Amino acid sequence: MPTPEARLERLGITLGEPNAAVANYVPYVISGNQLFISGQISMDANGLVKGRLGENMDLEAGQAAARLCGINLITQMKAALQSLSRVERIVKLGGFVNASPDFVDIPQVINGCSDIMVEAFGEKGRHARSAVACPVLPLGVAVEVDAIIEFE
């Protein structure tokens, strides 16, 4: 069975440096065999992906932003655990979408993050999840996702 790193490589995804915290918190905390990752925002090497779904972003753009959040979560996992093969289960994702009041496809936006977890970790990537709309997110980003991971 291919490693998560090999799966990401096949997808053309290269993990960079993990994002630094933007306020008074740490990017992750390990407690026992669980890894709690602070919310990762829609950001890549080109900068922040800002916008509001249903106002100036469509569903496809929102899913791409959520996918970036997933890649950033995986980058934090790698920083915390050194090897993604230590991941036993993606336990839960919490997704937040910057959305106009009439935008209702919040779960479909967060699928952008959920999908990358399954692509990278297979069955171990299937998780519980919440997905909620927010009137605004930090720094004006489109999406933020946090995670709870079980590891060996």
TrEMBL record:
Pfam families attached here? YjgF_endoribonc
Transmembrane spans: none
Q: Which InterPro entries match?
A: Endoribo_LPSP/chorism_mut-like, RutC-like_sf
Residue ranges annotated for the Endoribonuclease L-PSP/chorismate mutase-like domain, each copy included: 5-142
What is the name of this protein?
A: Endoribonuclease L-PSP
Taxonomic source organism? Hirschia baltica (strain ATCC 49814 / DSM 5838 / IFAM 1418)
